[in-house]
Each structure stands twice: as C-alpha cells, then as structure tokens.
Amino acid sequence: MSGKLIKNGIRTDGRKLDELRPLKIEAGVVERADGSAYVEFGTTKVMAAVYGPIKVHPRHMENSRKGILKVRYNMLPFSVYDRKRPGYDRRSVEIAKVVSEAFESVIFLEEYPKTAIDIDMEIIQADAGTRVAAITAASVALADAGISMKGLVSSVAGGRVEGNIVLDLTKDEEDVDDAIDLPVAMIARTGEITLLQMDGDATAGEIEKIVKIAEKGCKEIEKAQVEALLKKYSAEAADNR
Ligand code: ADP
C-alpha cells in the first residue's frame, strides 16, 4: 500500500514499519538527583530525575503502609515549534497520572512506608512519543536511584498510519488522517503490560497487531536501558578501584 508517508513499506525517514527511531539512552546524567536518565527517540528528547525515598510534604499525605509516588511531566516552552506557554496544563496533569499508574504496580512501594518517591520528567524536544520516552527515562532513573522494582519498564507507541501497522510514530505520522497511536508500557522481561492507551478507532485485530509491534519495540528498548545502566555502573566501579 502506498500513501503520502509510507511507500512500499518504507517511511519518510527511511525506517521500516517495525523499526524504532534512532534510540539513545544515558543513565545518571545529573549529579544532584538520586537517579536520572536522558532518552532520545529520534528527535524526541526527554530527561527524567528521581528523588527518593524522601519525606512526604504535606505530612497528611503520608501513608504508613507504603510509599507514595509523585510524578510530574512538563513540556519545556522551546520543545515545540510554536513556543509553548510555560507550566503545567490539563494534558501534562493527565500524562503525569497515567505515568504514575504505569509505575504503581511495578515499584515495591510497600518497602517505602511514610515516604515519597518523586519522578520529574522534562520534555526537551517533542516529536510525538514524549510520554513513552519519558516513561523509558523514568524507569532508568528509578533503577539508577536504587528503587526496588519488579523490573525495568520499557515504553513505546505502536499505531496505524495509512493502513500500515507501525512502530514508534513521529508527529507527522500521528497527524495523518485516520492514524491510530497506541502508547504501550511494559516490563519487557516478563511481558506484563503496565500502560495501554488509545487514540483513534481500531479493530480488535488491529489492536492485537499494534500491541505486538510495540512489544517488539519494548524488548529492544529494554536492552538499551540495561546497557545504559551497566555503562554507568561499570564506569563507577572502575573509578572506585
Ligand atoms: P505524546 O507526546 O506522548 O505522543 P500527544 O499524543 O499528546 O503525546 O502529543 C503528540 C505530540 O504533539 C507531542 O509529542 C508534540 O510533538 C505535540 N504536542 C503536544 N502538545 C503540544 C503543545 N501544547 N504544543 C505543540 N505541540 C504539542
């Protein structure tokens, strides 16, 4: 099938349908936070930092049985073509909630009673997929901070563009008529899905194929997440020798 953006199975940026954008993951990129990470999915660039476990403010939000997660997602004004008004809006609050839910079942929160774990995600440059890149970064930042988790969470969107099932959509692809964008987050090691969202109308068969292509992407992302963590910690071990 040949469309405006996809011709004979090749996309405008030269990618195959099931190919990720150039992926870059770095662990421990800032010194002040307990854990941090930088992630690029092509021209989408994000940073995540984790503080925790820390004291809960305000105190009445404390839970004596488990830690609480405080998640922030913020798009910097220069991250999009038309400068964005600084600060949080409805979309950023919704994304923070969704990301929080993606980690609730993964972090062993019962190991952190009466404390909070702060996850800050900053979108430096946006070309679709910011929430999935941010989840990928937050997961590496959590591991870098030494927070106990069931496993690393990897995240990417799958979707439908011009009738083709594709992996890791760009903004141009997302904006095509009839496009479907389906962000998926999962513990790639176990296959447990922790986030599944949907934008657009898809059939059950299409959803199945989209989730499958996203799973393939998550497995590749997990490898890069592990490599980034190993790189940081092997460098630290060498320094301490
Ligand atoms: P995600 O970035 O997780 O895919 P959306 O589907 O809401 O989330 O957004 C898709 C893309 O639309 C973003 O990555 C960004 O490129 C663009 N976008 C979102 N919000 C804005 C905004 N306020 N101003 C300009 N572009 C935006």
Keywords:
single chain; 241 residues; alpha+beta; Ribosomal Protein S5, domain 2; 5-stranded mixed β-sheet; binds adenosine-5'-diphosphate
Describe the protein's architecture and organization.
With 241 residues, this protein is an alpha+beta fold. It has helices spanning 90-104, 130-144, 171-174, 204-240; strands at residues 6-7, 10-11, 23-27, 35-41, 44-55, 68-75, 115-125, 153-161, 164-167, 180-187, 192-196. The chain is 29% helix and 30% strand. It starts with 5 loop residues before the first strand and ends with a helix. The protein is globular. It has a single domain (15-239), classed as 2-Layer Sandwich (Ribosomal Protein S5, domain 2). A five-stranded mixed β-sheet has the order 3-4-5-7-6. It has a four-stranded antiparallel β-sheet with strand order 9-8-10-11. The relative contact order is 0.18. It binds adenosine-5'-diphosphate.
